[in-house]
Amino acid sequence: MKILIGLINGMISGATPILLAALGGAYTYYAGVFNIAMEGMLLTGAFFAVLGSYYTGSWLIGVLLAILGALFLSLIFILFAVVLKTDEFVTGIALSLFAVGATTYMLRKIFSVKGVFSNPAIQPIPAIRLPLAENIPFVGEILSGQNLMVWVAGLATILTYFLIFQTRFGLRLRAAGYNPARLDSSGVPSSRMRALSLLACGVLCGLGGSFLSLGYVNLFAENMSAGRGWISLAAIILVNGNPLGIALISLLFGFSDGLGLLLQGYRVPSQFTAMVPYIATLIALYFYAARKRRLNSA
Amino acid sequence: MRQKILNALIGIVVALLLGAVLLLLQGYDPLATYEALFRYSLFGYYPFATTLRNAAPLVLPGLSAAIAFASGVVNLGQPGQLVMGALFATVGGLYLDLPPALMIPVLALLSMLGGLLWAGVAALLRRFFDMSEFIVTLMLNMIADFFTAWAITEPFKDPAAFSPMTPQINPNGWLPKWGEFNTMILFMFAAVILAWFVFNRWKAGYEWRITGQNALFARLGGCNINRNFMAVMLMTGALAGLAGGLVVMGGPHRFIRGLGANYAWDGVMIAIVANNGLIATFLYGLFFSAIQTGALGMELITSVPNEISQVLQAVLVLVIVASREYLNTFVEQRAARRRAREART
Amino acid sequence: MINNPTLIEMRHIVKVYPPSVLALDDVTVDFRRGEIHSIVGENGAGKSTLMKVLYGLTQANSGEIIYKGEPVHFREPGEAIAAGIGMVHQEIVLIPEYTVWENIVLGVEPVNWLGKIDRQRARQLVKQKIDEFQFNLDPDARVESISVAARQKVEILTLLYRNVEVLILDEPTAVLTPQEIPQLFAELNRLRDGGHTILFISHRLEEVLELSDRITVMRKGKKVDTVPASATTRQELARMMVGRDVIFTTRRKPQPPGEAVLRVENLSLREDHGRVRLNNLNFEVRAGEIVGVAGVEGNGQFELVNTLMGIQKPTSGRIFIRNVDITHFDILQRRQYISFVPQDRGKMGASLVAPLWEDAIMTHHRLNPRFSQWNGLLLNTRFAQQFTRDLIENFSVVAPSPRAHFRTLSGGNQQKVIVGRELLLQSDFVLLDQPTRGLDVGSMEYIHDQILRIRAEGRAVLMISADLEEIFLLSDRILVLYRGQLVGNLPVEQTNPQEVGSLMLEGQVQSS
């Protein structure tokens, strides 16, 4: 029982950053932007979260700063890919690499360390206790004590679903992806929707990144996003952008993360357990490709 | 051609200016910084030799990415292929004993084999299961990273070392230096020439290029898309693997943690900024190497952290790529305005 | 109608497409309120460009536009629509995944305070407009499921919903069958009588004469003249359009066909989710014969081309060329027997960014050993260049050198390169898909001549075309595809466009 609860908690923790990044990516996916900068945005968010939390002692400032940091990357993306019409693939890769270089550089410059910065003064994002629910067996143990950001992620999922499918913003966003010429001719510039989608992605990736460094653990490590941006991209593709589907897939990947930790208990070398989420992504991609082939083949 | 050079120059100047602004904002003297940067990379026999040597692990993954992208193959697995190549070369160097004239080529071939096989995994998954090589190679990068970490921590660990690394490989496998020039650069030049020849003069290269430009057209024209895809994946994997092998053979002579990872991603960026042109990749590779090599020396003098080179590189890539489009449009619009003026009179 | 006040004046418009294509050469023209005004010209004459300048889709280099007495300059279509001018494009630009009402209200959606779309109200408003103009549309239908003619109506309604007074239509009849055209004309006449102004771009002279009040003729970026429709003839318009007398009758000489080259037996294609794309096709194309395939787009032409070329595998049936069963051949094997000019130059016919010679040698590089060196590994670039030079000369391609980038050639010259490359393969069977779509009259005539030449040489030609005039001009026999089935296999002397149009639209001939 304890193990199961541990697994589920691990699943939720592992899912949260992927879910947030993937929700951000969903906006750009629907808007027709080929966005592969989530990895960089997550990393930037993680760094600025630690920066803000360390220097002000407030995790809230850390989160806000994380959002700003990721938004900065969004703005650069917008400048190059939307305004200057640079190739989106190139911009995304360049930005992700820029984020790695810049965060490593700032790690050395500001904190004078290489590799990892860890300090008791970093304030983590708090967990939420639900005193009323706590005593419900099993469900209560899981619901209470989850990090605030987990609740934020859940809310973000519902909000995203509403925004994209029920509002005028969503109608125009999806139109920009389906047929930008049509949207342009209706008087709403599709470039505006693309820019807005990138801003939304920045906000969400900033939140996800802050969870990486202030919720999951309490430090910043070089390249700590560890490919989660790529996994969130895979998640989006696998469910064609649907926010509810993204939530499910993120839980799946989070589960594989937790599974890795569990396997460590069985003396599987830590390097192999760390591979589990990536192998899980490959397996999910296998099923996705197989299904697509069945649908398309003559 | 003239436009490409102009584009490169404008990009470099603007990027350097932006970099200067960044330096100023942090209280550094940009002129002194740049002066040190270029002094430690280009001016002098030793700096120049070092720059050339450091260019090899940049140019090879760059060629790998350039050939792949230009052929419509999204191979982003150079980091993984590079470390697998390094691992294969290391293991070979630990267990084989041959005279240097044989040892070095054998190890080089082993490293190419390692990269080729790792790329082959992605190629097979694409070929038989339709799995996008874009995602697969990215995942394989992470898996290769962890796998090699395990390999140097368990089976091939050097018991005398404090941190995870392999023992040194057989000295017969060490790449010799001729004066200050590391023979690594021979492999680099050979690779550039061979790659150019295959890509531009072989029938296969013609088909790869056309496939990269318009896959449906190539397919309708009778090109065997599947076979070409495999060939490109394997060949570009081998190039990246070779880079890994050279790093081991010409550098620390053993597999240590953190070896070569950045080289591969830098190589990808170089291919992008070179617009997948092979000669341009080579030249930009040299330039990036100059920045990186110079940055190390520059740090000693000006105490600017050498990671600034990575920031400069990213800025350079973005500026050059963005201005490429702009320059095209600018030139064309000027011609258009001239024509319009003629029509009015 | 003819003496109505002037609504729009365009004066001295000059437009150059970068780098040096002079699309509009000092054009001055005026449009009157409440008229149907057609603009005719061959492809590339500038008629679309002129309207795009008016509509704000592109900016003129110089000149001015006066609308309702005031100078205007629309920087983008949104401004034009707000002022009351709307344009329906040649390629229908709707969002297939959305419904009719979603497409129409996009950009002016009725919302509540949260930003949530008020669906009831939107549907109601759209229904009102549908009834007002007597269009026959279901607001909840998804656009991807309605007919092309219906989609066109959605486009028009989208503009009327925004209360435009001036409607610009760019080649609207290009996508309609002969049966659907009268309905469109009736609607346009109704709109004109209600006070709207219609600007109608076309190159189909019969229609233009039937529909319009006045006609402006353009040629090579210049305005030739503006005449009342009642005061001119088809011959005269054609002469103004092209600058010389145009022949409207066929140059095809009757010729007895040889034996069957292509034989298609029981060809069927059924997709995994049950949809039947090709339904038991049986037909032949004989040597020295041109067989034209008519049909509304989407009735199986795409799948027919794909199965003949080897891109798609048929569910059943066989394909023979000169009695060789090629059904299971791969594409390269088929290319020994088939020349193929695809529908879309950019997507399937060539690599736009490559130099000319690289596009010219495709397929030849595999089939012709003279292109190989060094045991088949190397490409003989010298021979490739020579081959390309010969192609340029023999097919009258206007290009500076074999190294010129393909993209710099005009559409007509690009098509000549592709046609030349394919015909030089000397295959027994030639498959042509929309061979002259979008080309100027000169290139069109040239390619028609080439098609007739290979027919005279005894090759078998299967030609898919949406242009009924072209089909009747060149074909010996006409096949009609309807919902994947062959509903007509008629010698050309025994049929007429009305009958073929009926078959295209309904699968059977209308008994009148």
> Spans of chain B with pLDDT under 50 lasting ≥5 residues?
none
Largest sheet, spatial ordering of strands of chain C: 6-7-8-3-9-10
Structural class of chain C: alpha/beta
- Count of helical regions of chain C: 18
Q: What is the beta-strand fraction of chain B?
A: under 5%
Gross morphology of chain B is globular
Query: What's the gyration radius of chain C in Å?
Result: 25 Å
Number of strands of chain C: 22
Q: Please outline the major beta sheet of chain C.
A: 6 strands, mixed
Assembly type of the chains comes to heterotrimer
The geometry of chain C reads as globular
Share of residues in helices of chain C: 25-40%
**Largest sheet entry of chain B:** 2 strands, antiparallel
* Unreliable spans of chain C: none
- What percentage of residues of chain B falls in helices of 4 or more residues? over 70%
Widest beta sheet: strand line-up of chain B: 1-2
* Distance from first to last alpha carbon of chain C: 34 Å
Could you characterize the architecture of this molecule?
The complex is a heterotrimer of chains A (about 300), B (about 350) and C (about 500). Chain A is mainly alpha-helical and about 300 residues long. Chain A has a single domain (about 1-125, about 140-295), classed as Orthogonal Bundle (ABC transporter involved in vitamin B12 uptake, BtuC). Chain A contains twelve helices and four strands. Chain A has helices at about 1-30, 40-55, 60-85, 90-110, 140-145, 150-165, 170-180, 180-185, 190-215, 230-240, 245-265, 270-295; strands at about 115-120, 125-130, 145, 220. In chain B, a hairpin with a 2-residue loop joins β1 and β2. Chain B has helices at about 1-25, 30-40, 45-70, 80-95, 100-130, 135-155, 185-200, 205-215, 215-220, 225-250, 260-275, 280-300, 310-345; strands at about 175-180, 180. Chain B contains 13 helices and two strands. The model of chain B has no long low-confidence stretch (mean pLDDT about 90). Chain B starts with a helix and ends with a helix. Chain C has about 500 residues and is α/β, with parallel strands linked by helices. In chain C, about 30% of the residues lie in helices and about 25% in strands. Chain C has helices spanning about 45-55, 75-85, 100-105, 120-130, 150-160, 180-195, 205-210, 235-240, 300-310, 330-335, 345-350, 355-360, 365, 380-395, 410-425, 440-455, 470-475, 495-505, and strands at about 5-15, 20-30, 35-40, 60-65, 70, 85-90, 165-170, 195-200, 215-220, 220-230, 260-270, 275-285, 290-295, 315-320, 325, 340, 370-375, 380, 430-435, 460-465, 475-480, 485-490. Chain C has a six-stranded mixed β-sheet with strand order 6-7-8-3-9-10, with helices on both faces. Classes of the chains: A mainly alpha (about 300), B mainly alpha (about 350), C alpha/beta (about 500). The interface of B and C includes residues 202, 335, 340 and 343 of B.
